[in-house]
């Protein structure tokens, strides 16, 4: 297997699972595409498609192992709060929130599991995840492509990729904090929660 195939394989293996740092690798792939060593359309396809496939797998794990997923989320107060918060917003805002949550730290994992646990329709979730991953792949690869040409090399592109990824994560975190302070609408699920059921329409966590 030649070097270019190894690079495509590395992109796929590091992009499909959530929580795997790959900003530098994606930026490097963009820089290599600018240098003519990789195909830019193929890099974009591999990054977006494998990331979307990984999101679909997280959703499937949440549906198949709902009880275990709830138990994992329930072990930590922050994860439990994240489930409740994400479930509320997903029900209220729908597809736009599914797209936006991808850019929040750990958003791929929490978003996919929450969508499964609150029975958000899979096709709509996959559509939102696909749009989000295409946006993410576009700017991440473009940064490497631009950095490789304008700044003169793969290392510069990697530095730009890391810096912008951190900036986007910080911005998403600030937006998430602002949204978390906004009043939550009184839904039927919330009223059931006041009567002793699960808050915000989120399934009860044992």
UniProtKB/TrEMBL annotation:
- Ranges for domain VTT come to 20-145
Q: Which parts of the chain span the membrane according to its record?
A: 43-62, 125-147, 153-176
Question: Which keywords label this protein?
Answer: Cell membrane, Membrane, Transmembrane, Transmembrane helix
Q: Which domain of life is it from?
A: Bacteria
Q: Where is this region: Disordered?
A: 184-206
Localization per Swiss-Prot or TrEMBL? Cell membrane
Instruction: Give the membrane topology.
Output: Multi-pass membrane protein
User: What is the protein's major site of localization?
Assistant: membrane
Start-end of Low complexity biased regions: 184-193
GO cellular component, alphabetical, reads:
plasma membrane
Q: Which family does it belong to?
A: Belongs to the DedA family.
Write the protein's name: VTT domain-containing protein
């Amino acid at each position: 297997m030649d070097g270019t195939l190894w690079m495509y394989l590395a992109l796929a293996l590091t992009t499909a699972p959530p929580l795997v740092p790959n900003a530098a690798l994606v930026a490097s792939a963009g820089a290599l595409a600018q240098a003519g060593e990789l195909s830019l359309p193929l890099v974009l396809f591999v990054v977006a498609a494998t990331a979307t496939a990984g999101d679909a797998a997280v959703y499937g794990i949440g549906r198949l192992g709902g009880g275990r997923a709830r138990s994992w989320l329930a072990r930590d107060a922050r994860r439990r709060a994240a489930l409740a918060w994400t479930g509320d917003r997903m029900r209220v805002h729908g597809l736009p929130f599914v797209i936006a949550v991808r850019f929040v730290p750990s958003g791929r994992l929490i978003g996919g599991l929450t969508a499964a646990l609150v029975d958000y329709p899979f096709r709509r979730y996959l559509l939102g995840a696909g749009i989000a991953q295409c946006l993410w792949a576009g700017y991440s690869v473009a940064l490497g492509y631009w950095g490789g040409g304008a700044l003169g090399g793969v290392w510069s592109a990697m530095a730009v990729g890391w810096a912008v990824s951190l900036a986007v994560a910080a911005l998403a975190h600030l937006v998430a904090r602002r949204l978390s302070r906004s009043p939550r609408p009184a839904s039927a699920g919330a009223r059931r929660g006041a009567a002793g059921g699960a808050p915000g329409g989120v399934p009860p966590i044992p």
